[in-house]
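Recall that a protein's primary structure is simply its ordered list of amino acids. Everything else, from secondary elements to tertiary packing, is in principle encoded there. The following example makes that idea concrete.
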Amino acid sequence: MSTSILFDAPGPRTVARHRLYSIIAYVALAALAAAAVWRMYDTGQFAYDQWEPLLTPAYIEALLVDGLLKTLQMAFLSIVLAVVFGLVFGMGKLSDHSWVSWPCWVVVEFFRAVPLLLLIIFIFFSFGVGDGIGSFWSVVVGLTLYNGAVLAEVFRAGVNAVPRGQSEAAYAIGMRKTQVMNIVLLPQAVKIMLPAIISQCVVALKDTSLGFYILAPGLTAVGRGIWIQFGNQFQVAIVVAALYILANLVLTWIATWAQRKFVGERKPLALATAPQETGE
């Protein structure tokens, strides 16, 4: 049996006790799930007339085209703009010039501190109503500013996480700071930053639902129209949540694939078995 330097390996009686605790926990969770299902059945939540609107082609098209597609458009635009915003202001905070770093610091800290919903509402009533940018772009701008501020800190922390010897070696061979940043630091920092960037992309996609408060298009807005008409809030919430989860899973899979494809490192075994060049 394997041991640890932090604690002794559990003995047979401890292992049996832990298995008993696990079984009790699983039984309790199964009982809670069964009670929830029974409660929904008892209150008629599984009745066909409650689910029928969500099986109607017209409403399915509305959820997918007017709902999911608009949500993905808002998320895509805000993610792309937030990455650009974060890169510019994150690098600005690393500047040696105080007249650049201090304004960048103020902007990043301000938009990180403002609640996102309050920011979206402020943008909408300041620039979106009437002949303004509208609710769609109000959500995009709000998500860009908030997530861009978070990504600015991610970029700054990723660059600072690269071992200091890398930049010192680059300066020693005569590189300028811009060359050191673009050629040496950023390519290595990307590998450190990608998990946080992927997580922030998922957050941006979920936060598009906040556009509901300013009547922006999207899944939540379409779902609201359906449950107001048919009074099936629970059923609509289940379907809308499932679509959000599916979209987030696909986004996470794409981002993870891109990470492995473009910045993934080869395994040590692959490096060891790779053909070696010889002078012959």
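The two ends are 51 Å apart (CA to CA). The chain is about 80% helix and 0% strand.
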